[in-house]
Amino acid sequence: MILNHHKKKISGSLTLEAAIILPIVIVILLFLIALCLMQYKKVYLQGLVNRVTRQEAHNYKSVMGQHLYWRIYDHKKSDKLDEIRDYIEAENVFMKEGTTIEVQLETGLIGDYLNVHIQTPFNFGVIPLGFIQVSSRSSVKDTTEMIRNFQLIDDYAAKLPAYDMMKKKWEAVINQVVEQIAFEY
After folding, report:
1. Beta strands in the chain (DSSP E)
2. Which of 115, 113, 114, 117 lies closest to 134 in space, CA to CA?
3. 76-121, pLDDT tens digit by residue?
4. Which secondary structure element, helix H or strand E, spans residue 45, and what is its range?
5. CA angle 141, 147, 153 (to 5 degrees)
6. Positive/negative CA dihedral, 148, 153, 157, 159
7. What is the rounded distance in angstroms from the CA atom of residue 47 to the CA atom of residue 85?
8. What are the tens digits of pLDDT across the range 109-143?
9. What is the mean pLDDT of residues 30-46?
10. Contact, 47 vs 75, CB < 8 A?
């Protein structure tokens, strides 16, 4: 009789402990699942943004040259950036309301850069948990423009009083690099 009473007491304490511990364990598991899903989504979006940015930066200048002054003013710039944005929207399997996609062309002296930024909300079921942000930047390849810019810089540098001394130093450094490359191969 005493033994049965002791078993019921132990059985009741296990139920009580399980009732306290089990919800905590379930919440922790759900949090870990949400964290894994968020990381998966971020990695997918980063891969998409990197691929699209690299691909479109490589192809960006090849569609230019339609008019005489396309290097000075690209009248189709907004159309091209909209096409890139539309392509990302079509490829993004996680596209949902509240997602923002920014595509910008940054123009510099030496070259241009294509910047893409995506911000999308992350929900675990119906619970909003925040935003996922990914960005990528890739240089737009335009070899002809780069050569022209370097030639322009060299022409202006030639007018500097210390140009001959700088040129000798540059040539020495370039020769060392060439020798090192030739030695390695």
Report:
1. 100-107, 112-124, 127-140
2. 117
3. 778 888 888 888 888 887 777 888 899 998 877 667 888 999 999 9
4. helix 2-60
5. 125
6. positive
7. 15
8. 667 888 999 999 988 878 888 899 999 998 887 77
9. 92
10. no
Q: In the block, which residue shows the tokens 């509240």?
A: 98
Q: With contact defined as beta carbons under 8 Å apart, do 99 and 45 qualify?
A: no
Contacts (Cβ under 8 Å, ≥6 apart) of 89: 95, 101
Question: Residue 108 to residues 70, 102, 114, 169: CA-CA distances in angstroms?
Answer: 16, 19, 11, 26
Q: What angle do CA 80, 146, 102 make, to 5 degrees?
A: 30
Neighbour tally for 83: CB within 10 Å: 14
What DSSP string runs through 101-118? EEEEEEE-SS-EEEEEEE
Task: Give the residue carrying structure tokens 């539309």.
Answer: 86
Report pTM: 0.64
Separation CA 128–CA 113 (nearest Å): 34
> Please, are residues 68 and 142 in contact by the beta-carbon 8 Å criterion?
no
Contact yes or no for 103/52 (Cβ under 8 A): no
